[in-house]
Amino acid sequence: MTKVFLDEPDIPTHWYNLVADLPTPPAPHLHPGTKQPLVPEDMTAIFPMGLIEQEASSERWIRIPDEVQEIYRLWRPSPLHRARRLEQALGTTARIYYKYEGESPVGSHKTNSSVPQAYYNKLAGKTRLTTETGAGQWGAALAFATQVFGMSCDVFQVRNTYDAKPYRRMLMQTYGATVTPSPSDTTEAGRRLQERFPGTTGSLGMAISEAIELAVQDPNASYALGSVLNHVCLHQTVIGQETLKQLVVFGEDLPDYLFACAGGGSNLAGLSFPFIRENLEGRGHVDIVACEPAAAPSLTQGEFRYDFGDSSGMTPLLKMYTLGNDFVPDPVHAGGLRYHGMSPLVSHCYHEGLLRAIAVKQRDAFAAGILFARAEGIVPASESCHAIAGAVAQARRATEAGESPVILIGVSGSGQLDLPAYAEYLTGDMLDA
Amino acid sequence: MTKVFLDEPDIPTHWYNLVADLPTPPAPHLHPGTKQPLVPEDMTAIFPMGLIEQEASSERWIRIPDEVQEIYRLWRPSPLHRARRLEQALGTTARIYYKYEGESPVGSHKTNSSVPQAYYNKLAGKTRLTTETGAGQWGAALAFATQVFGMSCDVFQVRNTYDAKPYRRMLMQTYGATVTPSPSDTTEAGRRLQERFPGTTGSLGMAISEAIELAVQDPNASYALGSVLNHVCLHQTVIGQETLKQLVVFGEDLPDYLFACAGGGSNLAGLSFPFIRENLEGRGHVDIVACEPAAAPSLTQGEFRYDFGDSSGMTPLLKMYTLGNDFVPDPVHAGGLRYHGMSPLVSHCYHEGLLRAIAVKQRDAFAAGILFARAEGIVPASESCHAIAGAVAQARRATEAGESPVILIGVSGSGQLDLPAYAEYLTGDMLDA
User: Fold this and answer.
1) ipTM entry
2) DSSP string of A179-196?
3) Nearest CA-CA partner of A368 in A89, A21, A111
4) Nearest residue of chain A to residue B103 (CA atoms)
5) Which residues 87-106 in chain B show a CB within 8 A of chain A?
6) Is residue B243 part of a domain?
7) How far apart (Å, rounded) are the C-alpha atoms in residues A114 and B288?
8) d(CA A103, nearest CA chain B) in Å
9) Other beta carbons within 10 Å of B319
10) What are the start-end ranges of the H helices in A65-203?
C-alpha cells in the first residue's frame, strides 16, 4: 500500500482552532493608529464578519459550511503517500510519508482558504475580491474561488513576476480574473510608489497597498489575504486532520517528525496544528519542524515583536517573528516563502517551544526536490522542496544512528509551473541563497 | 457525491485486449519491404519481446505485472467526477461525468503506457530507451518511467516546441532525460534532414527517424512509441475499466455517450474499449464519439488504407485512417493530436461502426475548455478540450430535446503547461483551425 485516500464522507466537517488548546493565549493584533487590540469594527472595511469572527475566535471546532465542503470535494481528501521509492533511493531506515496538496485545481494548498474566504464574502453580499500575489499561487487560488461563487476578482501581481513567470498569470486569467502588474497606474498607491521608486519591478508590500486601496474604495469589494492571519491558518487545518486519519489507515501511530515549509505560515499551520494538539494532550511527541528559506529566515533570525504585515504599514500590527517590514529577500524561486514576517499563531507556537525551525538554502532545497521527483514522480513546488530537504537530512541522520523514525512531509503543491527553477538548478546557475 | 475514487486494491490487475472480442479481425501490420504480415522477428531490433507479444496478442485479458501495478498506484485509480458545476453552468438536463487522468506524475494519461514499456524493456535487459516527442507529454512520461526503472532516456523533441514551449523539456530534464532538439547533428538522419530542409524547425516524423536510428545502433537500447500501436492502446485500458466500476458507485448504468479526444488514438482506446465490449456483449448502447482536431481529421476525412506511421517511411505499414504520411497539420496547440494517421485498432472500430467521430476546431475546443475550467476548477489539456467541446454540444442538444442522457468525458490530462494556448484564446489571437 503506497497511497491512501479517505472515503469522501471522511473529509473534515470542522476546522480546528489551535487557540482553544494553547497553554498561553497569543498576543492580540493591534490597531496601527491607537495601538489598542483590534475590535471587529476595525476590520469591517476590508473583511466580512464571518472571517473577522474566525480571526478572533477561541472556539476549538468551527463548522465548515456545506457549500465549502462541497467545493473541497473537488480535490479533498488529498492523498497521503508512503514514499517507498524515496526511502529506497536514500537507503534509509526511516519510514517516510508525504501529504500532497498539489492535486487541487490550482496545484497548491491555497484553495483550502480561498474557497471559504470567497464564500463568507459572498454571504456578506460582496461581489468582488481584491488581492495581491507574488508567484501567483494565491492569486490563482482566489481567481478559482471567486469564479466558483460568481464574483469578480482583481489581482495585483508583482510586476517582476507578471513579466517573467507568465503561466500563473495566464491561469488567473483563464479563471476570469483581472490581473494587473504592480505597481500600476490604476491606484493612487501605485502611482505614488512609481514616483518614489522609478522603474521598480514591484514587491508584495506594494501590491498589498494597491489591493487594499481598491477594496476600501468599493463598497461591494473586500480584500483577501492568502496566509499569515489566524483565519487562514484555521482553514488550512483540513490538511492535518486528514493526515491524522490517513496515518491510522497505514497502521502508523503519530509520526516522530513533521516537516513543512513556512513562508507566511499557513501551510505549516494547516498540517501541524492538529499534531500540536496531539502533543499538548499527551498523545504524541511529534517533533514539528518549520522549514523556512535561508533568504527570509524570520523564525531562525528574526525578532519576536509587533510589526506590520505589509511594507507600507497599512495593516494592523501583528505580534510575530519578523525581519522588519522593510526587509527585501534575495530573489529566490520559492516566491511563496519570500515574506518578512511569520503568522502570529505560528510565531507564538515557536516562541512557546511547540515547534522548531530550520533555514534551508535554495540549492539544498532543489537538490532534495529533484531527488524526490526522480523517486516519487511528483515534481514538488519550490516551496515544498524546503520541507523535503529538512526531511531528507533527518532520514539520513536516522539511518546513520540506526533508528527507524516515522517522518511526515507536507508537500504543499506541485512544481509544474516552477520548472524554470529546476532547469536553473540543473544547469548550475542557481543563486546560492 | 461529486468524486469517486476506488479503493486501492481495486485498480485493474489486467489490461483488456479488445481484439479478443472484435466481430472481425483487424488487418495485420505489414513489413515495409516485403509487404507481408509482420512476424515477431521483424520487430526485435527496436522492441522487447514482451511488447511484441502484446502487439499481436488476441488474449482477452493480459496480466499487469506486479511491478507495474505498484507504480500505477502512485496515481491510479484516477478519479471519476460528476461535473455538477458544469451541468449548472450549462443549465443542462444531462448528467455529465469526467474521468480525469491529469493527476498522474506528468499530468497526462501517457504514463499508463510508458511505465509498462519501460518495465518490459528492463526485463529484456535494455538499459536505455529512445523516443520522439512533440509537445512533450509522451517524452515526459517516458522520462519518468525510465527513471523509475533506473534506465537512461534519450528524447528527440521537435525543435520548434523545444524552443517555444520549454516547460515540458524542463520536466523531462528534471526526471533525468537527455533532450535533443530535432533534427539534430547527433544522428545521420538528423544531419541528412537538415541538409534536405535547411533551417527546418522539425516534425514528429523527423524526430521518430532520429530516435529509431539511435535505438537500432545501440544493442542496449530500444525505441518506444507513445500511441498508435496495439500494445499502447492495451495499456491505456486501465482508464475505461476503472470508469466502469466508478459509474456503478455513482449509481449509474452505462453512459449514453462517451467523448474522448483522438490523435494517435491511445487515449480514446483506453477509455472506450471496455465500453465497446459492453456494447458488443449486449449490455449497453454507448454512443462512442472520437473527437479529433479539424486540423488533422484522419477519421472524418482520411482514407482507410495501409500507410507508414512516420513521415520518412521507416515503420511497418499500418492499416489505418490516414491523411497521408506527408500531411502536415496546421500548428494547432493540441500537439498530441497533430498526427496524420490513427491507431489501427481505433481505425478498425470506426470502419466497423463500433464508434463514430467528429472534428472540432481549436477555438471551439478552447471555448469549451474555459467553460470547463471555470466550472470545475480543473484546466484541461489542449487535447482534452476537444472531447469537452463534443460533450458540451451533446448536452446542449439533449437539453433542447428535453432528454437526460448520461454523458461521459475523457479528460486525458492537465492543461497547466498549456496555459499559453488559453492566453492566446482569451486575447483573440488563436488560429481558427
Assistant:
1) 0.91
2) EEEES-SSSHHHHHHHHH
3) A89
4) A103
5) 103, 105-106
6) yes
7) 38
8) 6
9) 18
10) 66-72, 84-90, 111-123, 137-148, 159-164, 166-174, 188-196
Query: What is the structure's pLDDT at A325?
Result: 87
Q: Which amino acid type is present at position B358? A: I
Nearest CA in chain A to B149: A375
CB contact under 8 A, B173 and A422: yes
Burial of B33 (0-12, 13-18, 19+ CB in 10 A): exposed
Q: What's the angle, vertex CA B145, arms to CA B143 and CA B146, rounded to 5?
A: 65
Residue of B nearest to A176 (CA): B374
Only one residue has cell 533551417, namely B199
Query: How many CB pairs (< 8 A) connect A and B?
Result: 114
In a domain, A321, yes or no: yes
Q: Has residue A357 been placed in a domain?
A: yes
d(CA B304, CA B378): 36
DSSP state string for A11-54:
S-SEEE-GGGG-SSPPPPPB-TTT-SBP-GGGGTTTS-HHHHHH
Residues 6 or more apart whose CB falls under 8 angstroms from that of B172 comprise B133, B136, B139, B140, B143, B153, B155, B157, B179
Pairwise CA distance, residues B109 & B76, whole Å: 10
**How far is the C-alpha of A421 from the C-alpha of A414, rounded, in Å?**
13
How many domains does one find in chain B?
A: 1
Bridge-based pairing state of the strands B3-4 and B80-82: antiparallel
Closest CA to A149 of B88, B91, B380, B422: B88
Output phi, psi for B339, to 5 deg.
Answer: -135, 140
**pTM of the entire predicted model:** 0.93
Per-residue model confidence (pLDDT) at position A9: 64
Cβ pair B174:A379 closer than 8 A: yes
In a domain, A341, yes or no: yes
Q: Nine-digit cell at B271? A: 477509455
Grid cell in block for residue B220: 542496449
Q: DSSP readout, A355-390?
A: SEEEEE-HHHHHHHHHHHHHHHS--B-HHHHHHHHH
Predicted pLDDT at B10: 79
Model confidence pLDDT, tens digit, residues A94-107: 999 999 999 999 99
Q: Are A112 and A270 in contact (CB under 8 A)?
A: yes
Grid coordinates representing B228 are 498508435
> With a cut of 50, which residues of chain B have pLDDT below it?
1
CATH number of the domain bearing residue A333: 3.40.50.1100
CA-nearest of A192, A236, A197, A189 to A215 is A189
Distances from the Cα of B71 to the Cα of A1, A85, A341, A377, B6, angstroms: 11, 10, 41, 10, 16
- Note down the domain range covering B289: 2-8+66-107+237-426
Please give the sequence-ordered ranges of beta strands (E in DSSP) within A217-309, or none if there are none.
221-223, 257-261, 287-293, 303-308
DSSP B412: -
From the list B144, B173, B422, which residue is nearest A174 (CB)? B422
Tens digits of per-residue pLDDT, B58-82? 999 999 999 999 999 889 999 999 9
Query: A164: pLDDT confidence band, cut at 50, 70 and 90?
Result: confident
CA B58 centroid distance within chain: 21
Cβ proximity of B167 and B106 under 8 Å: no
**Partner A contacted by B423 (CB < 8 A):** yes
In chain B, residues with a C-beta closer than 8 Å to the C-beta of A166 are: 419-420, 423
Matching residue, cell 527507524: A404
Decide: A59 and A17 in contact? Cβ < 8 Å.
yes
Report the 10 Å Cβ neighbour count for B347. Answer: 25
